[in-house]
Amino acid sequence: MSSLPSHNKDPSRIRKQFSDSCPVSSVATTKSLRHERLSRLGSSGSSDVSNDTSTNHAESYFLQRENRLSARKKAQEETANNDYKKMYEKALATNQRLKSRLETSKQELTMMQDQLERAQGRQDDCGANVLEAEKKIKAELKMENQRLKDENGALIRVITKLSK
After folding, report:
1. Which of 72, 78, 121, 123 has a C-alpha 20 to 30 A away from that of 87?
2. Kindly report the CA angle at 23 between 18 and 24, in degrees rounded to 5?
3. pTM of this prediction?
4. What is the DSSP letter of 144?
5. Range of 146's domain?
Protein backbone atom coordinates (compact mmCIF):
# COMPACT_ATOMS: atom_id res chain seq x y z
CA MET A 1 0.00 0.00 0.00
CA SER A 2 2.84 2.42 0.67
CA SER A 3 4.42 1.57 -2.69
CA LEU A 4 2.23 4.20 -4.39
CA PRO A 5 3.89 7.57 -4.96
CA SER A 6 2.87 10.35 -2.56
CA HIS A 7 1.28 12.47 -5.26
CA ASN A 8 -1.48 9.86 -5.79
CA LYS A 9 -3.65 10.80 -2.82
CA ASP A 10 -7.18 9.79 -2.08
CA PRO A 11 -9.60 12.26 -3.84
CA SER A 12 -11.67 12.64 -0.68
CA ARG A 13 -8.52 13.62 1.17
CA ILE A 14 -7.76 16.27 -1.47
CA ARG A 15 -11.30 17.64 -1.11
CA LYS A 16 -10.85 17.75 2.64
CA GLN A 17 -7.64 19.74 2.35
CA PHE A 18 -9.20 22.13 -0.17
CA SER A 19 -12.31 22.74 1.92
CA ASP A 20 -10.24 23.25 5.06
CA SER A 21 -8.09 25.83 3.32
CA CYS A 22 -11.04 27.69 1.79
CA PRO A 23 -12.24 30.33 4.32
CA VAL A 24 -15.79 30.63 3.01
CA SER A 25 -17.59 27.73 1.39
CA SER A 26 -21.19 27.15 0.53
CA VAL A 27 -23.42 25.42 3.02
CA ALA A 28 -24.21 22.54 0.65
CA THR A 29 -20.53 21.80 0.06
CA THR A 30 -19.80 21.99 3.77
CA LYS A 31 -22.64 19.59 4.59
CA SER A 32 -21.63 17.08 1.93
CA LEU A 33 -18.00 17.18 3.04
CA ARG A 34 -19.02 16.76 6.66
CA HIS A 35 -21.21 13.80 5.74
CA GLU A 36 -18.32 12.29 3.75
CA ARG A 37 -15.89 12.76 6.63
CA LEU A 38 -18.31 11.33 9.13
CA SER A 39 -19.04 8.30 6.95
CA ARG A 40 -15.31 7.74 6.44
CA LEU A 41 -14.68 8.02 10.17
CA GLY A 42 -17.61 5.69 10.90
CA SER A 43 -16.43 2.99 8.43
CA SER A 44 -12.89 2.76 9.79
CA GLY A 45 -13.46 -0.70 11.27
CA SER A 46 -14.45 -1.15 14.89
CA SER A 47 -17.39 0.62 16.43
CA ASP A 48 -16.12 0.96 19.97
CA VAL A 49 -16.56 3.94 22.32
CA SER A 50 -13.41 5.78 21.19
CA ASN A 51 -14.58 5.82 17.56
CA ASP A 52 -18.02 7.01 18.66
CA THR A 53 -16.42 9.83 20.67
CA SER A 54 -14.19 10.92 17.78
CA THR A 55 -17.22 10.96 15.47
CA ASN A 56 -19.17 13.12 17.90
CA HIS A 57 -16.14 15.34 18.40
CA ALA A 58 -15.65 15.73 14.65
CA GLU A 59 -19.34 16.44 14.13
CA SER A 60 -19.40 19.07 16.87
CA TYR A 61 -16.26 20.66 15.40
CA PHE A 62 -17.87 21.01 12.00
CA LEU A 63 -21.13 22.27 13.46
CA GLN A 64 -19.24 24.90 15.43
CA ARG A 65 -17.31 25.85 12.32
CA GLU A 66 -20.53 26.23 10.33
CA ASN A 67 -22.03 28.32 13.10
CA ARG A 68 -18.98 30.57 13.22
CA LEU A 69 -19.00 31.03 9.44
CA SER A 70 -22.71 31.79 9.31
CA ALA A 71 -22.41 34.19 12.26
CA ARG A 72 -19.48 35.95 10.58
CA LYS A 73 -21.40 36.17 7.30
CA LYS A 74 -24.49 37.51 9.08
CA ALA A 75 -22.38 40.09 10.93
CA GLN A 76 -20.80 41.22 7.67
CA GLU A 77 -24.24 41.58 6.06
CA GLU A 78 -25.55 43.57 9.03
CA THR A 79 -22.48 45.80 8.97
CA ALA A 80 -22.88 46.34 5.25
CA ASN A 81 -26.59 47.12 5.68
CA ASN A 82 -25.85 49.51 8.54
CA ASP A 83 -23.14 51.20 6.47
CA TYR A 84 -25.54 51.68 3.56
CA LYS A 85 -28.23 52.92 5.88
CA LYS A 86 -25.84 55.40 7.50
CA MET A 87 -24.62 56.57 4.11
CA TYR A 88 -28.21 56.97 2.89
CA GLU A 89 -29.22 58.93 5.98
CA LYS A 90 -26.16 61.14 5.67
CA ALA A 91 -26.83 61.79 1.98
CA LEU A 92 -30.49 62.52 2.74
CA ALA A 93 -29.54 65.03 5.45
CA THR A 94 -27.05 66.69 3.12
CA ASN A 95 -29.68 66.94 0.38
CA GLN A 96 -32.19 68.50 2.76
CA ARG A 97 -29.60 71.01 3.98
CA LEU A 98 -28.64 71.92 0.41
CA LYS A 99 -32.29 72.24 -0.65
CA SER A 100 -32.87 74.60 2.25
CA ARG A 101 -29.84 76.70 1.32
CA LEU A 102 -30.94 76.77 -2.32
CA GLU A 103 -34.42 77.94 -1.36
CA THR A 104 -32.96 80.67 0.87
CA SER A 105 -30.64 81.77 -1.93
CA LYS A 106 -33.54 81.91 -4.40
CA GLN A 107 -35.53 84.11 -1.99
CA GLU A 108 -32.54 86.41 -1.48
CA LEU A 109 -32.03 86.64 -5.26
CA THR A 110 -35.68 87.59 -5.77
CA MET A 111 -35.46 90.28 -3.09
CA MET A 112 -32.23 91.67 -4.58
CA GLN A 113 -33.78 91.78 -8.07
CA ASP A 114 -36.80 93.66 -6.71
CA GLN A 115 -34.54 96.15 -4.95
CA LEU A 116 -32.48 96.61 -8.11
CA GLU A 117 -35.60 97.24 -10.21
CA ARG A 118 -36.90 99.77 -7.66
CA ALA A 119 -33.53 101.50 -7.56
CA GLN A 120 -33.39 101.68 -11.36
CA GLY A 121 -36.94 103.05 -11.43
CA ARG A 122 -36.02 105.77 -8.93
CA GLN A 123 -32.87 106.52 -10.85
CA ASP A 124 -34.88 106.85 -14.05
CA ASP A 125 -37.30 109.21 -12.28
CA CYS A 126 -34.41 111.13 -10.79
CA GLY A 127 -32.60 111.07 -14.11
CA ALA A 128 -35.62 112.56 -15.88
CA ASN A 129 -35.91 115.29 -13.23
CA VAL A 130 -32.18 116.01 -13.43
CA LEU A 131 -32.32 116.11 -17.21
CA GLU A 132 -35.16 118.66 -17.15
CA ALA A 133 -33.30 120.78 -14.59
CA GLU A 134 -30.14 120.65 -16.69
CA LYS A 135 -32.09 121.76 -19.78
CA LYS A 136 -33.55 124.72 -17.88
CA ILE A 137 -30.15 125.71 -16.54
CA LYS A 138 -28.63 125.38 -19.99
CA ALA A 139 -31.31 127.66 -21.47
CA GLU A 140 -30.77 130.24 -18.71
CA LEU A 141 -27.01 130.13 -19.28
CA LYS A 142 -27.47 130.67 -23.03
CA MET A 143 -29.69 133.69 -22.36
CA GLU A 144 -27.18 135.09 -19.85
CA ASN A 145 -24.33 134.50 -22.30
CA GLN A 146 -26.22 136.33 -25.07
CA ARG A 147 -26.99 139.27 -22.74
CA LEU A 148 -23.28 139.50 -21.79
CA LYS A 149 -22.26 139.43 -25.49
CA ASP A 150 -24.70 142.23 -26.26
CA GLU A 151 -23.45 144.28 -23.32
CA ASN A 152 -19.83 143.65 -24.35
CA GLY A 153 -20.60 144.90 -27.89
CA ALA A 154 -22.21 148.03 -26.51
CA LEU A 155 -19.20 148.73 -24.30
CA ILE A 156 -16.84 148.31 -27.25
CA ARG A 157 -18.82 150.85 -29.30
CA VAL A 158 -18.77 153.35 -26.40
CA ILE A 159 -14.99 152.97 -26.00
CA THR A 160 -14.47 153.37 -29.74
CA LYS A 161 -16.46 156.68 -29.80
CA LEU A 162 -14.56 158.03 -26.81
CA SER A 163 -11.19 157.26 -28.29
CA LYS A 164 -11.90 159.24 -31.48
Report:
1. 72
2. 100
3. 0.34
4. H
5. 46-163
